[in-house]
Amino acid sequence: MLSNKRIQELELVMEFEKVEECFKEVSSWIENVGRKGLKETVNLDDSLEMLLQTQKQFKGFDLVASEYCKRGQEALKKMDRWEDFSSVDVHSYRVKLQTYRDQLEEFCTQLDETRHRICETVRLYEFFDKVRRGICCTEE
User: Fold this and answer.
1) Helix (H), strand (E), coil (C) string for the chain
2) Based on the structure, what is the number of domains in the chain?
3) Which of 42, 67, 119, 139 lies in the 20 to 30 Å Cα band around 14?
4) What is the pLDDT of residues 42-59, one digit of tens each?
5) Domain coverage including residue 55
6) Which InterPro entries match (predicted)?
C-alpha cells in the first residue's frame, strides 16, 4: 500500500511538472499584462463617449484575459487529485499549486468586478444622458 501511494505521488509530481508550464505562462501573463490592463480601468472617464470607448477597449482585453483564466482553471482542475496527498515530498508542490490557485482566483475576481463596474457605469451614464436629453426637450 505504501509503495502504491508513493508511486501515485511520483506520478502526480510528474504530472505537475507537465502542467506547471501552463501555470507559469498564465501567471506571467497575469503579472506582466493582466494587472496593468485592470489598472487602466481604475479611473473611468467623465463622458459617455469616452466611457463607451473604454468599454470597447476593455472588451478586447477581457476576451484575452478570460481565455487565460479559463486555461489556468483547466490546469488547476487537472491537479485536483493533490488534495488527497499530504506527504512531505508533495508539500512543496501543493504550496506552489495553492499560490497559482490564489493568484488566478484573485485576478479572475478582479476581472469580473471590473467588467461589472464598467457595464454598470455605462448603464448609469446612458440613463443620465437620457434624462438630460429629456430635460432639454422639456425646456424647449
Assistant:
1) CHHHHHHHHHHHHHHHHHHHHHHHHHHHHHHHHHHHHHHCCCCCCCCHHHHHHHHHHHHHHHHHHHHHHHHHHHHHHHCHHHHHCCCHHHHHHHHHHHHHHHHHHHHHHHHHHHHHHHHHHHHHHHHHHHHHHHHHHHHC
2) 1
3) 67
4) 887 778 888 899 899 999
5) 51-73+94-126
6) Rho_GEF_signaling-related
